[in-house]
């Protein structure tokens, strides 16, 4: 249990986790996360930290002791945001306050954990009788029936927001602050909007709730209920109709669930650049970005994404190993950050239903007995590496990163045999967002580059060395740096007391030719 999970235990778990692949991946993209870290704890209107979890501390299935243990585990690895359910059906149609939510949200506030509050489910007084019958006949929870009175839902939402707006007026004890509100969850899915997903009904809910929330707390951020990509957001999809009816101004950020539970988040076989087909998580986020920009632009929030370790309890394509779960989770955070996503909440910390919902429940990074999976340690490693590095920058922390190639990958073509036509692009994972040509260095620029090394180390490039190096490279950026690197790092082993000679330039040139790291005769193109 958590009482035995000391800090030493966390560090030991991190040491045992196979981080080589994880850290290699981070080294490439770490700069993209710098601007997201860190955030101050608990401000009146907190800026969203990028990293979050669906923790479900407000789940009534949890005891107070379990809720406290999970909050402690989240804080141990540096998680400061959680996505929580606030159920209208559990709150009740008429009550002004709910002591249960006062207590659980107060526990989170005391731990300096900020909240995305989901306002969802319908009390019996506002359910259609026919929908209740349908839910019973299909063995689905009746509380997912859509409200028959959307104004009643909006009025309840306003009461909840006023209770947790932190302004000191009619607040819950301790004035816990919830600054981000999500209107329902997956309203585009028949199972969470009974009897059938209805964009017209949801548009009315969203519009009325947005107005009510903003009146109660003008500084609050309002998200649409998280929707799936493609059926929820995409060409002529659910959210198109919602926006048409409710207006683009009826929410502040677009909440999406780009689940890809049966594949790695960036699986290259899910991309066909020639046909503009990309169903990876980056592809799904990019689709939503294009959709939002075409309508004026909004921040994107990924409020659910995850990978399951369900084993034999689910279909084989959904069952990932615990190490796969860990690396896929970290890669999803990095990829979302690289694409400018405002916030991502991984699903989930621990499964409150203890395996009752397959394959989604076992996406949790903590087991039902509260023992951590490798993904728990991986998230702690990710946050610790980034936050520690950010605080000590620029020492041993990247300041800029470039992916350098001779030309765009898409310009290459492969042939199965000499007599066969091209079979398409030479790489299935062209991730290029933008490219530009780096012109050759002038003599003065090459001299300046070498002089920087001299200033830092005292090791001199003589005029004879410079002339030979420039003669071989012609100022071509890759060759210039490759020759200097080969001499200083590979041949002299970073011994800056040793003299660089023209013969050393000759040796470095021959080594580059033998290594065939690129087609040298193409560098002048």
3D architecture notes:
There is one protein chain. This protein is of the alpha/beta class. 39% of the residues lie in helices and 9% in strands. It has 16 helices and 13 strands. The protein has helices at residues 7-16, 20-29, 64-76, 88-91, 99-110, 129-137, 150-163, 199-216, 238-246, 281-293, 322-338, 374-392, 443-457, 463-473, 477-491, 502-515; strands at 51-53, 81-87, 114-120, 180-183, 221-224, 227-228, 254-257, 271-272, 277-278, 300-302, 343-346, 413-415, 422-425. It has a 5-stranded parallel β-sheet, covered by helices on one side. A hairpin with a 4-residue loop joins β8 (271-272) and β9 (277-278). α2 runs parallel beside α11 (322-338) and α7 runs parallel beside α8 (199-216). The longest helix has 19 residues, at 374-392. The chain is elongated, with a radius of gyration of 28 Å.
């Amino acid at each position: 249990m958590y009482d035995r999970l000391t800090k030493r235990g966390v560090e030991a778990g991190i040491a045992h986790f196979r981080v080589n692949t994880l850290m290699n991946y981070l080294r490439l993209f770490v700069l993209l996360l710098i601007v997201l870290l860190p955030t101050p704890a608990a401000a009146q209107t907190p800026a969203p930290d990028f990293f979050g979890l669906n923790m479900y501390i407000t789940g009534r299935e949890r005891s107070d002791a379990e809720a406290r243990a999970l909050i402690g585990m989240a804080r141990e690895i540096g998680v400061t945001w959680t996505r929580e359910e606030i159920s209208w059906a559990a709150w009740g149609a008429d009550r002004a306050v709910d002591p249960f939510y006062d207590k659980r949200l107060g526990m989170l506030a005391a731990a300096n954990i900020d909240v995305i509050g989901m306002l969802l489910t319908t009390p019996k007084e506002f359910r259609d009788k026919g929908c209740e019958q349908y839910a019973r006949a299909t063995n689905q929870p009746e509380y997912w029936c859509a409200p028959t009175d959307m104004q009643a839902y909006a009025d309840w939402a306003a009461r909840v927001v006023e209770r947790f707006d932190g302004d000191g007026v009619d607040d819950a004890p301790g004035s816990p602050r919830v600054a981000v509100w999500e209107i329902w969850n997956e309203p585009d899915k028949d199972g969470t909007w009974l009897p059938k997903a209805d964009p017209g009904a949801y548009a009315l809910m969203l519009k009325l709730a947005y107005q009510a929330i903003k009146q109660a707390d003008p500084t609050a951020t309002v998200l649409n209920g998280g929707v799936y990509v493609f059926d929820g957001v995409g060409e002529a999809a659910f959210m198109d109709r919602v926006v048409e009816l409710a207006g683009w101004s009826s929410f502040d950020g677009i909440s999406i669930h780009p689940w890809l539970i049966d594949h790695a988040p960036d699986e290259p076989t899910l991309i066909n650049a020639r046909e503009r087909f990309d169903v990876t998580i980056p592809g799904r986020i990019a689709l939503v970005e294009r959709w939002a920009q075409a309508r004026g632009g909004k921040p994107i929030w990924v409020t659910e994404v995850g990978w399951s370790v369900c084993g034999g309890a689910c279909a084989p394509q959904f069952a990932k190993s615990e190490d796969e779960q860990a690396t896929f989770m970290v890669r999803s955070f990095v990829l979302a950050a690289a694409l400018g996503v405002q916030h991502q909440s991984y699903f989930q910390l621990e499964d409150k239903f203890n395996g009752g919902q397959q394959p989604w429940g076992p996406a949790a990074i903590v087991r039902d007995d509260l023992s951590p999976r490798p993904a728990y340690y991986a998230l702690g490693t990710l946050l610790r590496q980034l936050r520690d590095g950010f605080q000590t920058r620029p020492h041993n922390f990247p300041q800029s990163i470039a992916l350098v190639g001779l030309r765009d990958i898409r310009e290459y073509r492969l042939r199965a045999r000499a007599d066969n036509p091209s079979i398409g692009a030479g790489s299935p994972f062209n991730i290029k967002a933008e490219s530009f040509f780096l012109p050759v260095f002038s003599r003065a620029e090459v001299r300046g580059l070498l002089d920087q090394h001299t200033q830092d180390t005292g090791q001199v490039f003589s005029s004879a060395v410079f002339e030979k190096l420039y003669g071989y490279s012609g100022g071509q950026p890759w060759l210039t740096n490759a020759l200097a690197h080969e001499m200083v790092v590979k041949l002299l082993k970073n011994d800056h007391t040793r003299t660089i000679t023209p013969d050393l330039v000759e040796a470095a040139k021959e080594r580059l030719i033998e290594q065939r790291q690129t087609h040298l005769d193409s560098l002048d193109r």
